[in-house]
Design a protein that fits this description.
- This protein has about 140 residues and is of the alpha/beta class.
- The protein is built from 3 helices and 8 strands.
- A 6-stranded mixed beta sheet has the order 4-1-5-6-7-8. A two-stranded antiparallel sheet has the order 2-3.
- The chain is globular and about 45 Å long.
Length: about 140
């Protein structure tokens, strides 16, 4: 009986971990971060430049389909960001998704080639049905 309980617990944990890594949920939560109204004054407007995400700390599948101003978001390694001398990029520190909640922390580094500036965002999201909603947000200019 004890072995059966342990096996059942392991199956449940594996299922919940697999669910937490749902690509659809990752896309929706990441898009919510990019579209966050409190951040829009800092992100590139309708420029020709795409929005960049540094793949360091938290990494995403390079094929993840998110966009800013109709342009696909570009995911680059830390080395690529440094070698291209990018003016601005997002860097995610925390990206945790559970069945009904998500917690995300990231910084937006901009003006990197002149006078570097950083904006930090900490979000909590909740899921109802298949939709994610931002339940709390803190934006701090560092």
């Amino acid at each position: 009986m004890r072995k059966l309980s342990l096996i059942l617990l392991m199956v449940i944990l594996c299922f919940s971990h697999a669910y937490a890594q749902s690509p659809d949920d990752q896309i929706k939560v990441l898009q919510k971060c990019i579209d966050l109204k409190e951040l829009q004054g800092y992100l590139p407007g309708k420029s020709i430049q795409p929005l960049y995400v540094m793949q360091h700390g938290v990494s995403f599948d390079k094929d993840i389909k998110v966009s800013k101003n109709g342009k696909p978001v570009v995911f680059l390694s830390k080395q690529e960001v440094k070698s291209q001398h990018l003016q601005a990029y997002l860097l995610f520190w925390t990206f945790e998704i559970n069945e009904k909640t998500a917690r995300v922390s990231f910084v937006y580094n901009y003006d990197q080639n002149q006078s570097p500036k950083t904006v930090r965002a900490d979000l909590e999201l909740s899921k109802q049905g298949s939709e994610w909603t931002v339940s709390s947000v803190a934006i701090n200019k560092v």
